[in-house]
Specification:
Length: 75
């Protein structure tokens, strides 16, 4: 995992990550944050690039967090 420099990190991505963890679905997470599904997908893409990890794996209709997400939220 790369060094986390909060000064260069878009804090809105943390809101997106939190909602994705809660909803386990991109569309529902987008609805909860009042953004488009495309915007939420873009946020997830940026998070994946930042952490160099898929962060979520699609299982049927929902998303399951990878170990990287679980480590990040516990720290």
């Amino acid at each position: 995992m790369r060094t986390f420099d909060i000064g260069k990190f878009d804090l809105n991505l943390l809101r997106a990550l939190h909602m994705l963890l809660r909803e386990r679905n991109v569309t529902r997470a987008a609805n909860e944050l009042h953004v488009t599904q495309q915007a939420m997908s873009g946020s997830l893409k940026r998070l994946r690039q930042h952490f160099d990890d898929p962060l979520f794996i699609r299982v049927g209709q929902h998303l399951e967090p990878t170990p990287m997400v679980l480590i990040f939220i516990e720290s």
